[in-house]
Amino acid sequence: MLHTGLRVLMLSIVDPDIRRGGAWTVTRGLVEWLRGAPWNADLSVIAPEPHWPGLRQAASVVAAPWTGVPAKVRFLRSRSYRRQVREALDRAAFDLLIVNGSDLLWCLDEAPRACRTLAIVHNREAHVYGDQVAATFPHAGLLRRWLLRDCARLDAFERARLGSVRAAVYLSGSEGAECAREMPGLEHIVLPPQFAEPPQRIAKPPSGRLDVGFLANFTWWPNLDGARWLVDNVLDRVDGDVRVHLFGQSSRDVVRGIRA
């Protein structure tokens, strides 16, 4: 008898068919893992496609205090995406609903109570948001206070919604340990990113030079800060001939913006 596997719906912050950044790498690995043996999942993926993202992002920040909905949540909670989720859940009964990314945990409101749910936590988004606010606005001010209050709303949202899922997968060991302390009743595992494609090894002729490769999406501020930190705080302390090669989206802009 042919084993058809689980019927799974994944609501994802990124489209696994579009190569874009670290979230795509993680998502693509999960998709391949679920579709392969032993799961052989019949997997459907729905990802939001925000229109006018810059304008929508600003509107979400402004509206957050009046609606009580954190800006990062509101950004992806569009009418069109909610309709897609509802239609998918109405068309078929799924064995498992995967929420791939904490920003989409609001989708649990649309799920039947009996549906098994699994959250993939790429990051504790409130932590990332708070670090971004602190780095962008290091001094006290109205905008900093506004954003930090929104960050607190996001933290409360994440805690509440993670408490309502059946289980969670964390990519970070430290965040998995934090989950165990804060939500001891939530079943969870730490699963490092799964890579759908084997890494390619490039033969390098022997030399006295150390070449370091840095592959990242440099439009995302933590990667940009990391590149600057590497150049400004590490390279000067390393002896010998060391060269850093940046690869990825906007890597050329990074080279122009940091000290050579």
Helix and strand arrangement:
Elements: E1 7-12, H1 21-35, E2 42-46, H2 53-67, H3 71-76, H4 79-91, E3 96-100, E4 117-121, H5 125-136, H6 142-162, E5 167-170, H7 173-182, E6 187-190, E7 210-215, H8 221-234, E8 242-247, H9 251-257
Parallel strand pairs: 1-2, 1-3, 3-4, 4-5, 5-6, 7-8
Query: Which fold does the CATH topology of the largest domain refer to?
Result: Rossmann fold
| Main sheet summary | 6 strands, parallel
The first-to-last residue Cα distance is 63 Å
Number of domains: 2
pLDDT under 50 segments (min length 5)? none
Write down the secondary-structure element order: EHEHHHEEHHEHEEHEH
What order do the strands of the largest sheet run in, or round the barrel if closed? 2-1-3-4-5-6
Mean pLDDT: 87
Tell me roughly what share of residues is in helical segments. Answer: 40-55%
What class, by secondary structure content? Answer: alpha/beta
CATH class of the largest domain: Alpha Beta
Which CATH-level-2 architecture of the largest domain? 3-Layer(aba) Sandwich
Count the DSSP helices: 9
What is the strand content?
Answer: 15-25%
What is the radius of gyration?
A: 21 Å
